[in-house]
UniProtKB/TrEMBL annotation:
This is Cytochrome P450. InterPro entries: Cyt_P450_sf. GO terms for molecular function: heme binding; iron ion binding; monooxygenase activity; oxidoreductase activity, acting on paired donors, with incorporation or reduction of molecular oxygen.
Length: 93
């Protein structure tokens, strides 16, 4: 919330009606998640990620700070993109 109020990129857009507070919050959660490395998830089924098999039902620690910054998958435009994992749940978890 402080970033929205202090940073002109957010404040001007939010106050001007061009960007909703929800959109601003999503951008903050993409770029600066509140817990960088504290998301533990359990794959429902075995899954292959970068040539490494993760077994089902075993804990996997996800780096929130790293997952949204891969230049190969990040398009740069975040408006309307709610695929961050900051809440640790949802269709992308």
């Amino acid at each position: 919330l402080l970033l929205i109020l202090r940073d002109e990129r957010f404040g001007g857009s939010v106050l001007g009606g061009n960007l909703s507070s929800r959109d601003a919050l999503d951008e903050v959660l993409f770029n600066d998640p509140p817990l960088a490395n504290l998301l533990i998830t359990y794959p429902r089924q075995p899954i292959l990620i970068d040539e490494v098999w993760l077994p089902a039902h075993q804990p996997v620690v996800i780096s929130m700070a790293a997952c949204n910054n891969d230049p190969e998958v990040r398009s740069g435009e975040l408006l309307g993109n709610r695929s961050h994992l900051a809440w640790g749940v949802g269709q992308h978890a």
